[in-house]
Every structure is written in C-alpha cells, then in structure tokens.
Amino acid sequence: MKKEEKKKIGIGAGLTLGLVVISLMFVNSAFVNDIGIFKEKLQPEPEVEEERIWQRIGGYNDPLGENDPGAGTGGFMSIFWLDYEEDPATVLANNATDWSASGDVHAYEDTDGTTTDTVSEDPSYIVVRACFTQDQAMSDGNWNGSRTRCTLTCSGDETISQVIWGNGTAETYGGGIESDNDSDFDKLYINFYFDDDSDGYRILDDGSIDWAVTLEAKH
Q1: DSSP letters along 132-192, please?
Q2: At what angle do helices 35-42 and 3-33 cross, to 10 degrees?
Q3: Residue 20: in which H helix or E strand, if any?
C-alpha cells in the first residue's frame, strides 16, 4: 500500500473515532443534566387493572325442572311471576331450586319459546333467576353481584324495558337479590325482580305478554 493511501486511511479512522467520542460525551452530558428523568424511567410501571366490559352470557336448553346451564356455565334458570303481596327482598333470598312448586308464584317458565297460563289480573313481580360463574362474578375471592345485570323486555299487556343489577338491594323498579352466595361454591345465584312501582304487573282477561331476557356479566 502506498504511503499516501495509508495517510488517508489514518485520517478517516481518526475522524470516526472522534465522532464516537463526541457522541459518548453528549450522552453522558445528557445523563448528568437529566438524571432525574432517567431515575423516573427506571421506576417500575404501576399495574393497570384491565378494564372489564359487559359480555352476554348463557343460553337456553330444554331441561326437566329448573334450567341448569351446565357445569362451569352461567346463565338463565327460570322466569316467574311472584305475588305482589310478597316482600321480594326476603322471599327471593331463599335459594329454592324450583320456584314452580311455590304457592306464591302465579306462572313459571324454565325455557324460552313456550306458553304459560296465569290467572288474569293477578298483580305480580316478574322474576328472572340466573347463575354466574367465578370468572363472571367473582373479585378477589369474593362474589361481586354488581358485576352482573339482567335486562327484561316485554310487549303485550305490559310494556317493559328495564335493566336490573345484581347488587343485592331493592330499588324502585326492582332488584338483584342473591339467593346463594358462598365463595366456596362455583356459582353465584341471583333472583332479579322487576317492579312497576305501582300495582304490580298483570295479564288481562284473554291477554298475553311476550318476553325476552338478556343476562350479562362484566368480566
């Protein structure tokens, strides 16, 4: 290699090294000047709880007796008309397995798409019974019914479009009453009742009501 070429290479290497040193000096200067910012960045990021969203759950099958959504599954169990003279917050706290056998019940269904007769003009609360799994309604090892809700929509002799949360309290237009809350069990059972805050829901002579239920859990 010629002497002049060696000289050029030497100058190029020197420039490259110089740029590296200058760059490192700049980084160190920035670190010294902004040390507070760097310390802040080194702190662990706080845990952010994943936002829960309402998700529709359950479904229907054709069981004998009260509907059982199945092992490890939450969902619809029954719908029935409870006598308006009853105290729903007290009566519905009873975890009866089959409300069709109760004398306080005017009509009962454990499946959809069917027809049930009831005594006309009988004032009632409308009750939807449902169950929820640990994944759907448990927080920190305890059941949290407020993460569940039920929407009842009716047309015909009564027009209803109402949402009730499973918060265990009696509200103006109904409530979600827990009938079985045991953290050792794999399901939470809630009776959602709907109240017209007047004289009870009723069917007229030769009348009818079509109903639809939506169950949701925030998980």
Answers
A1: EEHHHHEETTEE-GGGEEEEEEEEESS-EEEEEE-SSSEETTEEEEEEE--TTSSEEEEEE
A2: 80
A3: helix 3-33
State the pTM of this model: 0.71
One-letter amino acid for residue 120 of the chain: S
Name the nearest CA neighbour of 135 among 90, 188, 89, 64.
188
H/E element, 16: helix 3-33
Whether the pLDDT of residue 77 is over 80: the answer is yes
- What are residue 43's phi and psi, to 5 degrees? -70, 140
Residue 78 CB partners (closer than 8 Å, separation 6+): 66, 67, 99, 100, 108, 109, 110, 128, 129
Per-residue model confidence as pLDDT tens digits over 192-203: 999 999 999 999
Q: Tokens in use for 138? A: 């448990």
